[in-house]
Amino acid sequence: MDLEHLIELILPPIIGVLEMMGIFVVAVSAVRAFAEYLGNTFLHRHYALQFELADGLATGLEFKMAAEILKTVLVREMSELLILGAVIILRALLSLLIHFELKSSQTRTEEKP
User: Transmembrane ranges (predicted)?
Assistant: First the structure.
């Protein structure tokens, strides 16, 4: 068994696990943020849920990007590589936007008296 065949056998399950981990992190973060939102609305609590949600989204995106990077090893055609590259760029931009929003929200929160 050569290395290329071994990689083709091992990588798809690893990629699938990474994808599922990313989905799980995003889903759990969304459910927790929604529960906190309900608590804020009905119990009049003050919890900055956007930080927790944005952090969960960023973490989930990191898992998804790891899976996309591993997919580049399996690419056979240039068209697949272009699509994969575009997906990676979009996810990286989303991750940067989320991190930027987190930092700017945190700065605004710290500046309030």
Answer: 14-35, 81-100
